[in-house]
Design brief:
Blueprint lengths: L13 E2 L2 E3 L2 E3 L6 E6 L4 E7 L3 H20 L2 H17 L1 H12 L3 H18 L2 H4 L4 E6 L2 E9 L2 E5 L7 H12 L3 E5 L6 H12 L7 E3 L4 H9 L3 E7 L2 H13 L3 E5 L4 E5 L5 H13 L9 E7 L1 H17 L18 H16 L3 E4 L18 E4 L6 H4 L6 E7 L2 H10 L2 E2 L1 E5 L3 H10 L4 E4 L15 E2 L2 E2 L6 H7 L1 E9 L19
Parallel strand pairs: 1-5, 8-9, 8-11, 9-10, 11-12, 13-14, 13-19, 14-17, 16-17, 19-20
Antiparallel strand pairs: 2-3, 4-5, 6-7, 7-23, 12-22, 15-16, 18-21
Helix pairs in contact: 1-8, 2-4, 2-7, 3-4, 3-7, 4-6, 10-11
Bound molecules: nicotinamide-adenine-dinucleotide.
Nicotinamide-adenine-dinucleotide binds next to α8.
């Protein structure tokens, strides 16, 4: 999108396009969505919302490109990934500005998220090694057995607004390196970076049709979920939508992974290093304005002492936190994604007050000088939150932290295990026994020990438990390769001259 839109005098509304079969195409449905510059709170672009026929055109391009792309040797597919990696590195400032202008996060944060996406591309560069099968010689006389992993065909990705570069890069590099073709439906709230990434993939040598980007809403997603040519669907977004995506995709015979919402607890033990814990909370609760699926939104303390100590050191830091648009290099926390999100988050804060939590800092009505219309919510913290409250049960997805005081360690563990979400959690302690027990017993997919945001690196896999993930596969890393491929096992007899006559009964292994 046009970066000039960040200037205070926004006059031009940019019209965003799709990327189908190797080129940008204008939307044909006549339906559009607003893309905001959240730092200014103004509409800066119009995104076309694809009709069924447009999505079908993208699926057709991907289906046509599949046979020849799947036939390209893995080592040559990897070469495209190496070139793409170089191009993204060269264009990282441009890409980060696209992310920040539509999402609102700081440039440094945007660059960091693109770098995390690039690490998945680097993982995908090793695809010849990752696709190696297994071989057993002479499982019976003259019989060998071996396995291989083959691509699924056309795969689709449906991604959320909060990581407009990184989350698509969790998906398409591995899918494509495995030999699939891909249709990406990015968030309609910040779609421009995904389009630029698709162009860079083309520049890296990817044939037309292998990666397509269609913008849209439910109509586009429903088409991807029901079209028989789509074999696999990766979704990242909210639980309410992800559950429907999983059920609909599965009902239409597709392999589906749906990574969903979260409420990540940080457990602070009485022996924790409080300075370390406070620094961790600052970054993990308020970085990217809390719009991260791995954000810490609940601190549970064992007893009152760590809560009191943590609050005493946290509040001055919150008061000093610099909130502003990404164009302000001093800004540490940007706006939320759009005016609706700001109103929704402020409503959540109001509900916490109504339900009796103690509001220590109130981010409602935040105004930033020079960006008065921006979608800012200040850093907010509640103390004495209890598990029945809406601010505890719901994912707020904003800069709002709840502090819950547990009576003892067992109560804290039970609380975390009872929550419907199971994406991430962390324990802060100096006690190895407690840390080991926590890691073992906690019902959460990603666990940190004195690490607040335990996001696995690209060569491991990312995924939550409970209602934070529907499906059998986590994303990227080894699970990503498994998700985007099917296992085929071959049993072959050479030389062909060995004859044993017709066999009517099953035999034991080794007696083929
Ligand atoms: P969202 O669920 O509103 O949207 C995600 C995608 O689904 C978008 O592409 C959107 O266009 C599409 N969509 C929205 N409504 C739809 C409908 N009715 N039918 C079909 N498709 C629809 O999520 P969001 O607000 O963009 O992102 C925030 C959410 O994503 C949070 O819940 C966050 O926790 C989650 N998230 C999870 C992870 C993870 O790895 N678990 C990572 C990032 C974000």
């Amino acid at each position: 999108m046009n970066l000039q839109a960040n200037a205070a005098s926004v006059t031009d509304i940019e019209e965003i396009q799709h990327f189908i079969n190797g080129r940008r195409v204008a939307g044909a449905s006549g339906r559009f969505g607003d893309v905001y510059n959240p730092g200014l709170g103004v509409v800066a672009g119009r995104v076309p919302l694809a009709a069924k026929a447009e999505v079908e055109t993208a699926i057709a391009a991907a289906a046509a490109a599949f046979p020849s792309w799947a036939a390209v040797p893995a080592a040559r597919r990897a070469q495209v990934m190496f070139s793409f990696r170089d191009l993204v590195k060269r264009h990282i400032d441009e890409l980060a500005a696209l992310v920040s202008s539509e999402h609102g996060k700081t440039l440094e944060d945007a660059r960091g998220s693109i770098t995390r996406g690039l690490e998945v591309v680097e993982f995908a560069c090793g695809i010849p090694q990752l696709l190696k099968g297994e071989f057993s010689e002479s499982v019976a006389g003259g019989v060998d057995s071996w396995s291989m992993r083959q691509p699924l065909g056309v795969c689709a990705g449906i991604t959320p607004f909060n990581f407009p570069a990184m989350v698509p890069m969790w998906m398409f590099p591995i899918a494509i390196a495995c030999g699939n073709t891909f249709v990406l439906k990015p968030s309609e709230r910040d779609p421009s970076c995904a389009l630029r990434l698709a162009e860079l993939m083309k520049e890296a040598g990817l044939p037309d049709g292998v990666l397509n980007v269609v913008n849209g809403d439910k109509e586009a997603v429903d088409t991807l979920l029901t079209d028989a040519r789509v074999q696999g669907v990766s979704f990242v977004g909210s639980t309410a939508i992800g559950e429907i995506i999983y059920q609909t995709g599965c009902a239409h015979g597709k392999r589906v992974q749906a990574l969903c919402g979260a409420k990540n607890h940080m457990l602070v033990m009485p022996d924790a290093d409080i300075d370390q814990a406070v620094d961790a909370v600052m970054g993990a609760a308020y970085g990217s304005a809390g719009e991260r699926c791995m954000a810490i939104s609940v601190v549970v303390t064992v007893g009152d002492a760590p809560a009191d100590a943590l609050i005493a050191k946290l509040l001055p830091k919150l008061d000093a936190l610099k909130v502003g648009p990404y164009t302000d290099p001093a800004a540490e926390m940007g706006p939320v994604i759009n005016p609706d999100a700001k109103a929704r988050i402020e409503g959540c804060i109001a509900s916490g007050v109504e339900e009796g939590a103690q509001l220590l800092r109130d981010g409602r009505g935040a105004v930033v000088a020079g960006a008065e219309g921006g979608c800012f919510v200040g850093a907010t913290v509640f103390d004495r939150v209890t598990p029945g409250m809406r601010i505890y049960t719901d994912e707020i997805f904003g800069p709002v932290l709840s502090i819950v005081r547990a009576g003892d360690y067992e109560e804290a563990v039970a609380m975390i295990n009872d929550h419907e979400y199971g994406n991430g959690t962390a324990i802060f302690t100096r006690d190895g026994d407690a840390a080991r027990d926590f890691v073992h017993r906690i019902q959460i997919g990603m666990v940190g020990v004195n690490v607040p945001i335990p996001v696995p690196l690209a060569f491991h896999s990312f995924g939550g438990w409970k209602r934070s993930l529907f499906g059998d596969y986590a994303i990227h890393g080894p699970e990503g390769v498994r998700f985007y491929t099917r296992l085929k096992t071959v049993t072959s007899r050479w030389p062909s001259g060995i004859r044993e006559g017709a066999v009517f009964n099953f035999k034991a292994g080794g007696e083929h």
